[in-house]
Amino acid sequence: MLDKPRESWRAAAVSRRRFLQSTAWTAGAVATGVGSWVIPAPWANAAAPPIKVGIATDLTGAIGYAGNADANVARMLVKEINAAGGVIGRPLELYIEDTASNESVAVPNVQKLIQRDHVDVVLGGITSSMRNAIKDTIVKRGKTLYIYPQLYEGKECESYIYCTGPTPAQQCDEFIPWLIKNGGKRFAFPSANYIWPHVLNAYARKVVEASGGEVVFEEYYPLDQIDYSATVSKIMNEKIDVVFNTVIPPGVGPFFKQLYEAGFGKRGGRLSCVYYDENTLNINEPYEIEGLASCLDYFRAVDKTDPVSARIQAEYEKEFPGKILLAAGSAATGMYRGIKLWAAAVTEAKSVKREAVAPALDHAKISEAPGGPAEMVPGHRHCKMRMYIAVAKGGNYEIEWKSEGLLDPKEC
Amino acid sequence: METALNALFEILSFGAIIVLVVLGLGIIASMMGIFNFAHGEFVLLGAYTTYLVYSWGLPVWLGMLAAPVVLALIGLVLERLAIRRFYAVPIVAMLGTYALGIIIRETVRMLIGGLYISIPAPLVASLVIGGVQLPEWRIAILVITALVMTGSYLLLTRTSFGLRMRAALENPALARASGISTDRIYAISFAFGSALAGLAGALVVPIFSLFADLGLRFLIQGFLAVMLGGVGTFVGPVAGAGIIGVLSAALPWAISPVLADVLVFVIAIVIVKFRPGGLISRGRV
User: Which of B208, B213, B221 is the best mutation test for A, with the most CBs of A within 10 A?
Assistant: First the structure.
């Protein structure tokens, strides 16, 4: 009996401690939200309040590997810019929100960036569906500048949205004639059934036909299809020379494997895919995709001849060693250009107000980025950049062609 | 002729893969009345085990042998810790195993950095028969599926353990009264089903590569197969799996793949409409 009050006291204490613990957790979660990260400015004062940079990217879910690379690039650049004195004398503060590879999770999280954190710019979104889901929240209702960093199908011409990834013109105009020369004239367009392949294929078809080639078939598959035997058989029977692939993971691995097994490469067929970078190289065994050609704004193989790219890549790897790569297909290079171009625009405008930054961003230029310099095309809100054609050999890329100057995005 | 032979092989080979995946799911659903929504993730764990063993520098086939053993152990532990509490409440079992599946999937995603990782097949050559390339590994999967299916069937019909298993399914109270430890039987059945999932994952990973959502696609097809085949027998889900696998692989040869994907479901729903209990809803095995 004597022990009872003490026990109840102890029970109360434990529950009080638990209560405090869980309250602290809840308070933390309420304050920042699940999937939110803030990297505070290293210095700030009343005269120089921090500039808030919002990153909305897929840190978790199916394309988490790409989103984490984008977030890493932002962290690296913000650190670098702050170490050099910030922008217009003010430090940058980074607000990262997880869009979780899921549009319905993404929109409320992006709202947090706009309504709670009042960021001065938002960069991010990887898939086109994500861009379409979050852009109104940022640009229309949020009245904030939005920079979309991923290679995409083009046609995003709304005001205050700036695209820093390659467009179909940049990825096809030189690449398709190269494929005809280094593969043949008979093309197949096997594709995942969503917006990017549909719009990209429409553009690519025009280039194929204008270059004297022929699209023998264009076919769309459910996004999660993993058996491609019927398609492979058609490719072999129709004597296709070039497979211009827009099937995405998880289907792309088994598709390329089945093509290899059917002897497509052996009989001289050329595999091509314009989102293939260093991340996607590991989906198949090297011999299965030997000779695969891709056209992007950066490959690691560029480092051999471009000291700037080599330096950026080395800095990234030093800061973020491991599996999350700085690669072009995951929008990491577009993110790099986006932040640098925006910083250049803010420096010119001497303001972070949207109305002041937008005209400056419209003609912003940077001399250093992975793959080479970049500049916005005035009035078109898209980015000129250097492009490369690379071919997979023994599990690595070798650069086969590099554009003379910066290629025009030909958008808007 | 070549195309027809090629189509036949590809269709059979994909059918075999689906049968292999559904086997474990069907055994757990039929023998224990539990719909294991984490089954796809058990397949994923089988694939991950193979990758792990391979990444240590050991041969792939060793990983494939280890996968069912590891999954049997994981299944056993999970059954003891969580699944056994769900037998009386099938709806809770679905939600519980679904949650378990998410935990496994996201953990694996974290472990592999969300990437897609290629794992080589133990056999990489192709046989050429009548001008058609038949990859040896797909042939191996066909053979292994046939062996596992026969083995499981014999285990259930010809051994005393199989008899006790069926007794525990048909009338648990009577089985217990006859001195059969249904508790143990359930644990072993769950471990066995898990081991089959592990084996399936290990065998298919060289074809589909390792990624966190590997099990998801199979889960949907698996449940469709169980629904179509009927719960309560061993043969039902296997027959259902055969039909779903063959349909999924065969339809894209004839019609647009996007349409084919939908049509598989439509056909399955129509069949279930006329046979609500599934194709084989009554029977001894």
Answer: B208
Cis peptide before A250 (omega within 30 of 0): yes
- Give A50's DSSP letter: P
| Structure token pair of residue A350 | 């001497």
Considering only CB atoms, A225 lies closest to which of B11, B135, B261, namely: B261
Q: What is the pLDDT of residue A10?
A: 42
Model pTM score: 0.85
Average pLDDT value over all residues in chain A: 90
Mean pLDDT across A243-266: 92
Is pLDDT at B229 greater than 80 in this prediction? yes
- Cα dist from A103 to A109, A128, B94, whole Å: 10, 11, 26
How far, in Å, CA of A45 to CA of A316, rounded? Answer: 30
| Strand (E) or helix (H) holding B172 | helix B172-177
Q: What is the pLDDT of residue A5?
A: 39
Report the alpha-carbon distance of residue A304 to residue B208 in Å, rounded: 33
DSSP string, B242-284: HHHHHHHHHHHHHS-HHHHHHHHHHHHHHHHHHSTT-S--SS-
Residue A22 buriedness (CB in 10 A; 0-12 / 13-18 / 19+): exposed
| pLDDT tier, A12 (very low <50, low <70, confident <90, very high otherwise) | very low
Q: Kindly give the pairing relationship between strand A383-385 and strand A374-376.
A: antiparallel
Nearest by CB to residue B213, choosing from A62, A280, A323, is A62
Report pLDDT for A16: 55
Beta-carbon count within 10 A of A310 CB: 15
- Per mean pLDDT, which range of A80-89, A366-375, B109-118 is the poorest? B109-118
Using CB atoms, which residue from B11, B115, B135 is nearest to A282? Answer: B115
Question: Strand A145-148 vs strand A161-163: parallel, antiparallel, or unpaired?
Answer: parallel
**Secondary structure of residue A145 in the 3-state scheme:** strand
CA distance A46 to A24: 30
Encode burial over A154-172: b for 16+ CB neighbours within 10 A, e otherwise: bebeeebbbbbbbbbbbbb
Angstrom distance (rounded) from CA A202 to CA B55: 42
Asked if the Cβ–Cβ distance from B116 to A249 is below 8 Å, we say yes
Cα–Cα distance between A96 and A49 in angstroms, integer? 19
Q: What is the ipTM of this complex?
A: 0.84
The phi, psi pair for A328, rounded to 5°, reads -75, -35
